[in-house]
Fold these 3 entries.
Entry 1:
Amino acid sequence: MKTLINILILTFFSFNIFISEAGTENPIVKTDNVEIIKALNNAEVYPNPAEEYIYLRIDDKDLSSDVKIEVMSIIGNKMKVTHDKLDTGLYKIDLSNIPVGHYYVMLTVDSEKSLKKFIKK
């Protein structure tokens, strides 16, 4: 018997857990999207605080999909920024068109999301 359990953590992360042989002493548990979650959680944003640019480093070599990058204000408004992929896993995000303040970079791969906070000074 296989049971699907959906888990939602802080509304930013979600993943599925499949439990085989539910009700036995030794259920088998596996998750999907583990590599995506690991890559997103280990992503780095620097320098912080930043002035004109921030760099995003993410271990994307094992990801099956492209990383979607969005910059949002602290209240959730999407900001218009451009970014360039400089190298495998390294992105440069232009902050010159956004005002000083606190922001988030939202990273999305497939259905997985992660937020990284930074300050523009």
Note: Residues 34-120 form a domain with the Immunoglobulin-like fold (CATH 2.60.40.10).
Entry 2:
Amino acid sequence: MKAILHLTKGCNLRCPYCYAGKQGSEQEMTLETAKKAVDLAISEGNGSACISYFGGEPLLKFDLIKEVTVYAEEKARTANCSMHFRMSTNGTLFTEEILKFCADHNILFAMSLDGYKKSHDISRHLPDGSGSFDLIDSRLDMILRYNPFTVVTHVITPENVSMVSDSIRWMYNRGLRFIAHQVDFNDERWDMDLFEVLKSEYEKLAQWYLEASRTGVHFFMTLFDEKLKNHIDHPVYVGDVCDFGKTKISVAPDGSIVPCVRFISDDPDAKGYVIGNVATGFTDKREFWIGQNLLGRPECNGCDLVGRCANYCGCTNWNATGSINTVPPLLCEHERLVIAIADRIGETLWNEKNQYFLKKHYKLDRHLLEMLTDRD
């Protein structure tokens, strides 16, 4: 089982698209609660467990991370359970000490970066309104020295949509090779004009993807590579990735358990998705919500792209429409666009018998692939 620990709701940034709720909150997880979450993950893990540090900004609680990591390693060793660690961070607080600890304990991390300075600083800013880009860029060489496989999470919004392709090129040239994309489908400013801009940016990215693939330099970008993988490997259906609390849970600072990080928020409706507490275990609501998530997506009936579409993410659906089973129209249009472009890329590289492309989609490291395709 994977347990995502929300160590704190506090954060040193104030990003408008953050779904974690009001920042600056004093809600923090205690060591006792974190240990109980670790115990639960191991007991439910069937020989394998993962602890992921989340926030707010988890590195505000680095001392707690150290204690929990050591505890989890010892507990897993005693239980003969394999243990993996993850972390989602904004990257602004990294020090050599923190990076060394992550390397020593195999903590893989995803770092938020919305592209080059102009694009990134639009949304990812400090409480005083100043941008956070320089705080990350000044640390990037050190970060990559300790973790060449650093995953960056790139959020696409109506405000930075015209900078998407240039941002990806910048990140690639800066040495970042693993890029996970998220479109902020919850932003009501999206319209057809902006969607056309997005389409144009994706077409530019497709051309760049072909050029980069021909160099043989290893990279992975979820935007296209996820679609290529579920065509080459196997389709992804509701429950395959977003299983809504079956094998992956999020733990709030007070120990409450919900199916996904998006339900740890200030939205009153999120309280209805609490499925237990680390102190007392799961309630009947766990099985109820797992079942509800598997009911499917009525809008998708008969669609020939259903096995390659992100409609499976009940949390994204809920965040945008208020229902885990209702897919936002923008997501549908977006997936149709991306799948068509990805298929064109795949056909081109297949016809070229591009060796890098063929190797990439059959031999990518499993744990790194999980890190990239995770929605946290």
Note: The chain has a mean pLDDT of 93.
Entry 3:
Amino acid sequence: ELHTLRYIHTAMTDPGPGLPWFVIVGYVDGELFMHYNSTARRVVPRTEWMAAKADQQYWDRETQIEQHNEQIDRENLGTLQRRYNQTGGSHTVQRMSGCDILEDGTIRGYYQEADDGRDFIAFDKGTMTFTAAVPEAVPTKRKWEEGDYAEGLKQYLEETCVEWLRRYVEYGKAELGRR
């Protein structure tokens, strides 16, 4: 793989005392470059090159996006607890998405979700369908396949994600190239 951009979202019903219930981390070529959590509620740079290259408008826009994702995952936690008929206990929802630019220029994109460490649902960009890994994911699969969610996700993975990956690699080329 030539370059990779990965985002990992983690939402927990019971993270423990003093810990945020929602966290997002972003990696470029395996290097942590951004972080967001439900306590600070701001996207912050985790590398010198991101701090130096991205302007305040970028951080404000990314913060708005992640605050929206935080709201979505709060709803997702409740939905999943109802589907699994869970009333209490600790539960975790994870989403992983990203894109890769391979040596030959091929672009790969992926989106998958897990619940309590078990596969839940994944997007197949080739067939424009979602694979439900468990029966509880079938209502989500149906909802997403009935709407235009797949089309938007494909566009994000093939265009928006790749565009930002190229930009991030350019921002960090001196540091990323040394690894």
Note: The chain has one domain: 3-176.
